[in-house]
Amino acid sequence: MPVTLTSLLTLAASLGGVVAASTLLTPDLRRRFLSRPLKDLFRRALPPISATEKEALEAGTVWWDREIFGGIPDWQSLMQRPMPPLSPQEQAFLDGPVETLCRMLDDWKINAVDHDLPPQVWSFIKENRFFGMVIPREYGGLGFSAMAHSAVVLKVSSRSVTAAVTIMVPNSLGPAELIRHYGTTEQKNHYLPRLAAGLEIPCFALTGPEAGSDASSIPDRGVVCRGRYQGREVLGMRLNWNKRYITLGPVATVLGLAFRLEDPDHLLGEESDRGITLALVPVGTPGMVIGARHDPMGVPFQNGPTEGREVFLPLEMIIGGPQQAGNGWRMLMDCLAEGRSISLPALSTGGAKLAVRVAGAYARVRRQFKLPVGRFEGVAEVLGRMAGQVYLMEAARRLTASAVDGGEKPSVISALTKYQQTERMRRVINDAMDILGGAGICRGPRNLLAPVYQSIPVGITVEGANILTRTLIVFGQGAIRAHPFLLKELAALDHADPRQGLIDFDKAFWSHVRFALGNGLRTAWHGLTGGRLQAVPFDGWQAQLVRKLNRLTTLFALVADLALLVLGGSLKRREALSGRLADMLSDLYFASAVLKQYHDRGQLEEERPLAEWSLTHLTHHAQESLTGFLDNFPLPYMGRLLKRLALPWGAFCQPPSDKLTLQLAELVMTPGALRNRLTEGIFLPTFAGEALADLEEALQATLNAEPVERKLRHLQETLGLPGPLSLEKALQANLIAETEAAAIKRAEVLRRRVIQVDAFATAHLMREEAA
Prior knowledge:
Layout: H1 5-24, H2 27-45, H3 51-58, H4 64-70, H5 75-80, H6 88-104, H7 107-114, H8 119-127, H9 146-157, H10 161-168, H11 175-182, H12 185-196, E1 202-205, E2 221-229, E3 232-247, E4 254-262, E5 273-282, E6 288-290, E7 303-314, H13 328-339, H14 343-365, E8 367-368, E9 371-372, H15 377-405, H16 411-436, H17 438-441, H18 450-461, H19 466-481, H20 486-493, H21 498-529, H22 540-567, H23 575-600, H24 608-631, H25 636-646, H26 658-668, H27 673-678, H28 691-719, H29 727-732, H30 738-755, H31 766-770
Parallel strand pairs: 1-4, 2-4
Antiparallel strand pairs: 2-3, 3-7, 4-5, 6-7, 8-9
Helix pairs in contact: 1-21, 2-21, 3-13, 6-9, 9-10, 9-14, 13-16, 14-15, 14-16, 14-26, 14-28, 15-16, 15-23, 15-24, 15-26, 16-18, 16-19, 16-23, 19-23, 20-21, 21-22, 22-23, 22-24, 23-24, 24-25, 24-26, 28-30
């Protein structure tokens, strides 16, 4: 059945009539005859929400995600949001200790020979308080902003993933962060100065063999009892645990432990099951086993299992003291929302920036068929795509870190940022490996990308596996947490006073209906007019793309409500559908970040291709996610109806043009301010013998030689020579100067140097060769 303007107006009028009828009734009658049965229906449609799910939903804060779920983003407020620069102390740390650390790191030796950071690097990290970046100054830490923390991880990750992971874990979800927010005064005074100074090395044990993605079901137990600790009898807990994948576990001196605390003898109160609890366990406590190592894809950061058998600790070792018993899941969710916004997004961006820098230079230096490989459109297309991805990754990294610095703990945005950044790093690194070809797959000291490539599955897996994050968390949590009314409706269902609960539900529900109706009417209007009549606070090409963004945001809010209304609790099981909505939400957030970054950098015309490619790519992908959702909606007629409503004239977002993509490819193959800005923040070695320094030198020499090579080709054509004009003949005939010939010779020497790959006598001698 075709959808006409008349049928759409009829549908809108019917919905409007329902709202109008509700307003004609008195509040008491509306609640009795409309809201009460709707409340019961609403309750039956929703899946049961466990206590741990409820704590996860309530953890953290909502921020720009609420604007997206609201359907009408306030672009001016985002553009006016301050983006504070690094402080002088933070910049000095980046230019000083971080730069020095990067120079100390030999990633090939770390990965292939020592399988660990060398002792002098461990000492340097501790002495310069890299483990205390998030610890306040009053406890001896550096007290850095989230932006500075992110910048440090980005720079170090572009040199060594092993070193970056070693640094970022104590500053992310670990004992220091938990103690800082929830610890007792005694715990703060004792542990924070020692952690900041590197006198203690922390790790945090959450995941176990039976509790991975479903971490809330941890089987590890602690039982409240009396026992002896350090020669005195105290009220404490007897712990048994089995954990794995614990980063820094093999070298830790203090273990943060998540477990379920039980009180069968009611020594703490009436409740037997106190819930998930967090405690500090000093390494060496009798009964604990630690020291073995995992091998995470050959990236040798310290990681391993830990077990505890009948380990007794006083209740004072609970983070926050006995009064925080049972509050561990909420504490974890709050800290994860903050930490997940920084570490892996920064590491991913650092790795992707390095890949663009390397692949761009290599594509200009490496030749086939007498041409730089970057001049072939197939390669240039990949290079341009890489450049655009890096630009939008940097935008999201900065915007998310600024939110944390602004006091937010963005639980939904941190999840989608971690998921998206690690996935985009995977695409960028894979693209770079394709361009490097054989030079990318032969490991050795000169291969800059193999260690990053090896580390990709680690980032995909940790801090919430990406498949789970995409299909269950981003939209599943976001739809409830960031929706303007849904959380209020849920709270009304569980209100202790049924009468007040009905009043609250009545208010939230009818506001929700009016909100959905408004989104539907805007969707129909934008569809019929192509969104061209919107007033937006942008001009020119930005205005056109922002109108598309507005239209997509309204559509997202509408289909999110449709999914929740029609599918209810079953949406939790329809992960392919919720995953598409998660992708759409992610694209809209990343597009917001790109707009913000372009605005903050002064809307430079030379940067326009990067911003335009990123926004065009994101709007097109968001549209693809939308159409995929509607094409696969379980009620096909409703999906087709809404598709006609949303896209009456067909698709309105096109992918980036080839011309624009090739512009970006040229950018990353050409040294200059824009290429430097795109890869800003990574470590750039300048000393001889460094693979990246040699590649950069070869790139510049290649560009210096290209005018001379063009001159030789022109002379050959002009003179009508049957074959190529050799350098020697041109010199003998005084057709070129000595300096021109020297430029070509130097470029050739450097080119041959950088296209070489490492070779070893035999496999068992690789260790000696590397040393």
